[in-house]
User: Which sequence fits this backbone?
């Protein structure tokens, strides 16, 4: 039988005391970002912008060692307001966050939703991106001018699909486009879908004449040739894509969308700050930087109270634009 010497016992004790911190070096535990059991809600169908953003953020956060096993789940309906109502009902739940953006701001207004983003805890704005104007590969419209000419001739016969409810980005962009082309927004036949995933099938099946959605949602289909890109809605061309801005094509439109993260109301200051720290660490990670480039997203980082003030301003903007368009 071996006898343990005092020196051996001391060494074992030091290993017990020093082991955990050494194992945690470089992990989320060290930076205070680990939130076991964290869930990301997506308030629309799989394949849309909120879905891609949430799943990319979750994967990047896990790969960067910031927090483990983030569950991403979809709760679609009413342009995102079904998910918003669920989020607000989860009062004090510091392990739930929702991917969202301008579309939810608009859906709250268009659906006269009982709960608004003012009822949530703002965490961060993550990205900004342009919308794209796309048609199926076999569409007769080869340029944005071809499309506008046909649209002006009979606006009601050319349905335009968007992945957001009225008041959301995929609705506002074609309405601004119509006004710039001399078409009354009230004459536009807009068909809303619950996210870009649902919209894609209708574009490819020629159920709508053209679609408007975020560039990151349709990059793969554009590059594979399934979709023909006619124009982008922002101030500059998108790197790697061969299409003019609407302004280049002669239509005075400059429009971009954004996406972010909100949490339930009633969080403690510590719970809110931990979620913000996690998103800040994600934002600074090489994994997220790579995802920004790959998806054509622009960095638009804004956190906490400043993001809350931005949400208030966006709500006022949506109301103003809808009124200006006569909608």
Assistant:
């Amino acid at each position: 039988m071996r006898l343990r010497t005092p020196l051996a016992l001391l060494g074992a004790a030091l290993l017990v005391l020093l082991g955990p911190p050494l194992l945690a070096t470089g992990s989320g535990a060290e930076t205070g970002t680990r939130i076991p059991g964290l869930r990301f809600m997506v308030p629309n169908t799989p394949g849309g912008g909120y879905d891609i953003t949430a799943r990319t953020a979750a994967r990047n956060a896990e790969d960067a060692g910031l927090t483990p096993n983030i569950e991403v789940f979809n709760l679609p309906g009413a342009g995102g307001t079904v998910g918003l109502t669920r989020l607000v009902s989860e009062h004090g739940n510091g392990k739930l966050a929702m991917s969202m953006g301008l579309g939810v701001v608009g859906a709250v207004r268009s659906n006269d939703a009982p709960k608004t983003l003012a009822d949530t805890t703002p965490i961060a704005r993550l990205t900004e991106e342009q919308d794209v104007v796309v048609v199926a590969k076999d569409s007769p419209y080869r340029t944005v001018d071809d499309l506008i000419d046909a649209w002006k001739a009979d606006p009601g016969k050319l349905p335009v699909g968007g992945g957001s409810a009225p008041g959301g980005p995929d609705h506002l962009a074609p309405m601004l486009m119509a006004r710039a082309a001399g078409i009354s927004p009230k004459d536009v036949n807009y068909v809303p879908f619950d996210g870009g995933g649902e919209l894609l099938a209708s574009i490819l099946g020629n159920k709508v004449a053209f679609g408007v959605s975020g560039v990151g949602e349709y990059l793969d289909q554009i590059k594979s040739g399934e979709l023909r890109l006619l124009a982008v809605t922002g101030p500059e061309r998108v790197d790697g894509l061969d299409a003019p801005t609407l302004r280049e094509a002669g239509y005075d439109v400059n429009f971009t969308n954004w996406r972010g993260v909100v949490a339930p109301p009633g969080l403690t200051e510590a719970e809110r700050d931990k979620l913000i720290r996690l998103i800040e660490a994600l934002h600074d990670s090489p994994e997220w930087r790579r995802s920004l480039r790959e998806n054509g997203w622009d960095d638009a980082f804004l956190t906490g109270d400043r993001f809350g003030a931005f949400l208030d301003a966006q709500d006022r903007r949506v109301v103003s634009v809808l009124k200006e368009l006569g909608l």
